[in-house]
Amino acid sequence: MSVSLSSAAPPPYRLSVAPMMDRTDRHFRYVLRQITRRTLLYSEMVTARAVLHGDVERLLGFSAIEGPLVLQLGGDRPAELAAAARLGAALGYDEINLNVGCPSERVQQGRFGACLMAEPALVAECVAALRGAVGVPVTVKHRIGISGHEGYDALTRFVATVAEAGCARFDVHARLALLDGLSPKANRTVPPLRYDVVYQLKRDFPRLCIVLNGGLRTLAEAQSQLAHVDGAMIGRAAYDDPYLLARADRLFFAGTDPVPTRRAVIEALLPYVAALEQSGQPGTRVTRHLLGLLTGRPGARRWRTALSASDGATATERLRALLLALPAAVLDET
Ligand SMILES: Cc1cc2nc3c(=O)[nH]c(=O)nc-3n(C[C@H](O)[C@H](O)[C@H](O)COP(=O)(O)O)c2cc1C
Fold first, then answer.
1. Which CATH superfamily is domain 15-253 in?
2. How many A from CA of 143 to the centre of ligand 1?
């Protein structure tokens, strides 16, 4: 199958961290940037309508260090998406991504998210409007299919139609989305992973940039995907154990900077947390994302318990105390 891709190809990000509501907010992304400078990061999904009617700084604000950074939008109205994307691009997001993978009922009622896989022409219209609005690449995150449109033909029709509109990359969650009653959480575990379908997609659309997502738990697993597709996207594993990304810059982007220790990560976060607290915001907005930083290492439970304690200490004080209390062997290993 051949598809003409008119837009400039996006930089070949071989590794990305998936968009996750309530997780990949600006504070978690700031944390991740102390661990990996080059992995592509995504915002949480923000609906176009929220951007147009809400507090733009609260919804879209970020620190320069968070780039390269993708703004993921949800919506099904081309003009609204275009207007929201324009605001995002003006703020400095490096890409705009359209969510065509979220199966939540709330999202379906708005007729966007995964149910849009049944309407490739509308998604193509949205992509065309986004491309007309911004100069940065426009990409789409989707599933391998949805209830009632499970076949490979439906998937290729979707990808071919959306690619014609100039979508520069497809982030493919290698599962069907079952839109008839299965919760979003179950939709991330119950439908089986079908990496073979994503590999086939890459074979059938060799000129498109295809990124595989779903179920990757380690950098080695992510790396092994690169024999079949252009990039790997890690979601939950990166949240549960963010330090797993410590070697990402070296392994995926030929980086040569020293691998940061956990101590270096925590020390780099101290001024950020302190500034947040000085501005009157709770430092727990950052430290809630740090609970997994010692996953699998001695002291992990102590770390989690101390970070979640409500003993009147500030988050900055708690982090400083933990730097003294935790095993140096864990804080300083790489
Ligand atoms: C808590 C949570 C929130 C999510 N929110 C979004 C979202 O806003 N947009 C989106 O496209 N996918 C969202 N996802 C799906 C992830 O991006 C990813 O596709 C999925 O978790 C599978 O990848 P994984 O197995 O590596 O976690 C979310 C997943 C989780 C666990």
1. Aldolase class I (3.20.20.70)
2. 11
